[in-house]
Specification:
Helix 8 packs parallel to helix 14, helix 15 runs parallel beside helix 20 and helix 17 packs parallel to helix 20. The chain is 34% helix and 24% strand. The protein binds 5-amino-5-deoxy-1-O-phosphono-D-mannitol (M6R).
Length: 612
């Protein structure tokens, strides 16, 4: 989704830092990019381009960027108005003295636009953002300082925003504000750098300060800054936090795509999700992040997991496991639906938000919805310091490291593992599968590696099926959420129609679709319902449907039933589908490569969905 970077400092390298930062945010998905910067006469200049950040860099002079100490930049993922130069950010007031970059949506923009048009303001874009510079301009007429005008404007905006503003009236200051859209600034030795995501800052400083909702900050070129809570009209003092950063994790290395690199990081992800958290010698699970709420957890009799997309499928996998391990009823709700439901909610219910980015607007809205209910809000989140980590009472980090490909891969495994750990923790050792599962968690990274060793075989399978237009993915029990995840992966990066179904549902409708051109992926790993899955395969075969099965090593039956089989190492019924998931993620990857598609940045999608 949209990305923001702004720089103010003493060195004339603002454009280099802003453009590097925008490049670091490219993985989030965007369709146009732009910058505003101060020239040597302290006037603001604007450059905007449709397409890649590289196009913007070329337009600004390539290696020879104009020297300047102040710049703001933006990558836009279109919401209001198609990707064009007028709709790209920065948006400005008419005389180009106020430039604004904005992430989020201004919900009352049409009302504000009507009001401003009546005052004589002329609009040149279709964006909601354009109301902001005009509104600030409007208030400069009745206030005595720019900061006052900025604050007055903020009071009028409804919706979600991360905003950075540059003004030629105060060339030594940048203004930034946040409401339901992330914003962080870095405190470097000779500059302040503000961005929507710390990955745009990391290269320059690890010292950062996150803004909270209803806060704005004035960033000065001498390195000083003032934060204000404009809801309560108070000055904010906040400690600087230090980012943990592993440069190797954020770069491609020898891999052609981030998605492949991240799939190959699954064994390491499984290891780091459990590192220091399970102890085989004492049969214990220690989750430091839940210690502060351990007492409250004893009284929880219902859990609601809220999440979107892949995170919701990991949530569903967690639902099955927590119920089996801890005997607590769990339900998963798509965050976008949850927030509009009027369901009864008791104080003994815990809500768990699952998210890779920690910035997904729908999941944030779900957390906000229960704010006044007094329920326990937990997080299973990957991005350290993200909005959700600061909205939850407690939680367990996923520790998957940065995930850059739009298609979530390794994060799914970290989320599933952490939910498994929460189930083990809540079960307090009472479940029959407690000890076997602890042991299996230790063994899983090596088994995952064995699946990855079959990449060439999976690539050949992808070549064989790459021209099919429809797929169905089926599984029973623990394999069902994994089937859903297999299907979303195929559709989002290959644009092939794919659906996930519980295997038992085939005969209740989807079977009508099956013919010789409609292949089915069947997760047929060892489980107590394997015989039933065989039944589903027979039904598909009887309609001439091609079957690709993922089965457990040593299964001699399956080759007689399926057209193609990929074997995964023997594991528990609960964990085998995770090994099958690696096969499905690799399959999608290789189909996308065979079709020469943009694997890491599929069309129409964004990595972090920060609008509702
Ligand atoms: O950052 P989150 O985990 O909250 O993101 C949730 C979904 O937007 C995300 O998983 C999406 O479905 C992925 N692109 C799927 O690969």
């Amino acid at each position: 989704m949209c990305g923001i970077v702004g720089y103010i400092g003493e060195q004339p390298k603002a454009l280099n830092v802003v453009l590097d930062g925008l490049s670091a945010l490219e993985y989030r998905g965007y369709d146009s990019a732009g910058v505003a910067y101060l020239d040597n006469k302290k006037q603001l200049l604007l450059d905007k381009q449709v397409g890649r950040v590289q196009g913007l860099i070329d337009s600004l002079g390539g290696a020879d960027l104009p020297p300047t100490t102040t710049a703001i930049g933006h990558t836009r993922w279109a919401t209001h108005g198609i990707p064009t130069i007028p709709n790209a950010h920065p948006q400005s007031n008419t005389d180009k003295t106020i430039m604004v970059v904005h992430n989020g949506i201004i919900e009352n923009y049409s009302e504000l636009r009507d009001h401003l048009e009546k005052q004589g303001y002329k609009f040149v874009s279709e964006t909601d953002t354009e109301v902001i510079p005009h509104l600030i301009d409007f208030y400069t007429r009745t206030t005595t300082s720019f900061v006052e005008a900025f604050e007055q404007a903020l009071h009028q905006l409804r919706g979600a925003y991360g905003i950075v503003v540059a003004t030629s009236a105060e060339p030594d200051t940048l203004y930034a504000a946040r409401l339901s859209s992330p914003l962080v600034f870095g405190v470097a030795e000779d500059a302040l750098i503000v961005a929507s995501d710390p990955s745009a800052i990391m290269e320059h400083t690890k010292k950062v300060i996150y803004l909270n909702d209803y806060e704005f900050v004035c960033l000065h070129s001498d390195g000083s800054y003032d934060i204000k809570d404009f809801e309560h009209d108070t000055v904010v003092e906040r400690e600087v936090e230090t980012l943990e950063y592993d440069a190797a994790q954020a770069s491609l290395g020898d891999y052609p795509h981030f998605m492949l690199k991240e799939i190959f990081e699954i064994p390491a992800t499984l290891r780091s999700a459990t590192l220091g958290r399970i102890k085989l010698e004492s049969n214990t699970v220690k989750l430091g992040g839940l210690e502060s709420v351990a007492e409250q957890l004893k009284y929880i009799d219902r859990i609601v997991i809220v999440a979107c997309g892949t995170a919701s499928y990991a949530g569903m996998y967690g639902e099955y496991l927590i119920e089996e391990l801890a005997g607590i009823p769990v339900e998963v709700q798509q965050a976008s639906e949850f927030k509009y439901r009027n369901e009864p909610f008791s104080r003994s219910t815990a809500l768990i938000a699952v998210s890779q980015s920690g910035e997904t607007a729908d999941t944030i809205a779900a957390l906000k919805k229960v704010e006044s209910y007094g329920v326990l809000r937990l997080g299973v989140i990957n991005a350290v310091g993200s909005t959700m980590t600061r909205m939850t009472d407690a939680g367990v980090y996923c520790h998957a490291g940065p995930e850059q490909a739009v298609a979530s891969t390794k994060a799914f495994f970290a989320q599933a593992t952490v939910l498994m750990l929460i189930g083990l923790y809540l079960s307090n050792g009472r479940s029959e599968i407690y000890k076997p599962l602890l042991e299996e968690l230790e063994a899983l990274p090596n088994k995952a590696k064995q699946v990855l060793d079959q990449a060439d075989k999976i690539k050949a399978l992808a070549e064989k099926y790459k021209d099919n237009r429809d797929f169905i993915y089926i599984g029973r029990g623990y394999a069902y959420p994994c089937a859903l995840e297999g299907a979303i992966k195929l559709k989002e990066i290959t644009y092939i129609h794919a659906e996930g179904y519980p295997a038992g549902e085939m005969k209740h409708g989807p079977l009508a679709l099956i013919d010789e051109n409609f292949p089915t992926f069947v997760i047929a790993t060892d489980s107590k319902v394997l015989e039933k899955t065989y039944g589903s395969i027979q039904e598909i075969r009887a309609r001439k449907g091609p079957v690709i099965a993922i089965a457990t090593e040593g299964n001699t039956e399956i080759a007689k039933l399926a057209d193609d089989v990929i074997y995964v190492p023997k594991s528990m019924e609960q964990t085998s589908p995770l090994l099958a998931e690696i096969v499905m993620q690799l399959f999608s990857y290789y189909v996308a490569v065979a079709k020469d598609l943009n694997v890491d940045r599929p069309r129409n999608l964004a990595k972090s969905v920060t609008v509702e």
